[in-house]
Amino acid sequence: MSFDHENKNIYKKGLLIGGFFCTFILKCYVYNSVEHEALQKECEMISNQILQNTIDGLKNIAHVDLFVLDIDGKEVASTSSDVVNVSSAARDFVESPADSQEIQGYQFFKIYDEQSLEYILICTGSGENIYMLGKMIAYQIQTLLVAYKERFDKDNFIKNLLLDNLLLVDIYSRAKKLHIQTDAKRVAMIIESVNGRDNNALEIARTHFGTGTDFVTEVDEDNIIIVKDVTDINKPGEIAKAAEEMQAGLEKEGLSGVRIAYGTVVGEIKEVSRSYKEAKMALDVGKIFFDERKVICYSELGIGRLIYQLPIPLCKMFIKEIFGGKNPDDFDQETLTTIDKFFENSLNVSETSRQLFIHRNTLVYRLDKLQKSTGLDLRVFDDAITFKIALMVVRYMKYMEKFT
């Protein structure tokens, strides 16, 4: 295939334009929430700023001035102040059946979103070469519209999915339309950071973790949610490792106090909301009973998740029955340390005394003293369980006091 010199230049410009848009569309998929509110206000339409940035870049490649107008002939974006000269002609062009037309030294092109006319692209200049450039630019902008809208639609779909705002039939029909696999193994993760809102945590998370099969979004002002595809992960430990790597990566990016909680793996897209609810509980319960952990899984909560669902009046009644009028916080530090170490060593007297660097008889004396005070002998399994649960209930009550 041969080209004359001028056509070669057009061909090169076409390749540059194509490359420019490939890069730009990829950025749209990890685009941050700076434009998020504008997106919502514009009802899923691409923002004017995006179009302006786009045609500015294209002008540097094609060396022609470009105008993007809406169907009323109003300026959306332009690289020249001469837009007033083409507004009237653009309105007439909208009414015409032609998809492209040369008018008074300008090339006009219609840009559609599906079957709906959305924009008019105008290129300065005339002739076959300008027509070819304009045709390529119009096609690429139309592709950008589709990609950008799909990204927004996916984010909106995932949010409604997490919040249980969709009917079952809508979940599967919309997932199919958005090309989202419905039977992939997924898990919902919640990321919380102390200063996330001030340091663009959502943008950082989208940049690092928002791949084609993983979705990064938010449903409130506090946390980030990642719906992660774990189809290729076979062991639960690998999910924990991935979460730990996320946690370390976000802190490396400057976020502080990052905690990640995640639910159980689900095999159907309709169950993603359940995994999200589990992750929410894991985040709250983790703060109460596992505050030293940066990553916590719902399946690791144990009895903590049962205590978390108890009403406070019932908790107070239980504590009063176990400790009478005595508050567990009144125990001295030596006693509390002894209790924690005894539980840590599965009620083994010898190992506990060794780790506390005390004589076995000294430990027995402390346990006898605690038995006289509470009526519970921690060397007896049933009493030890009751005492452990009581301490967890007290911790839960203290945590809930912060919100009352």
UniProtKB/TrEMBL annotation:
Signal peptide: none annotated. Residues 336-392 form the PucR C-terminal helix-turn-helix domain. It holds the Pfam family GGDEF_2. Residues 170-285 form the CdaR GGDEF-like domain. InterPro entries: CdaR-like_regulators, CdaR_GGDEF, Homeodomain-like_sf, PucR_C-HTH_dom, PucR_C-HTH_sf. Belongs to the CdaR family. It comes from the Bacteria. This is Carbohydrate diacid regulator. It comes from Butyrivibrio proteoclasticus.
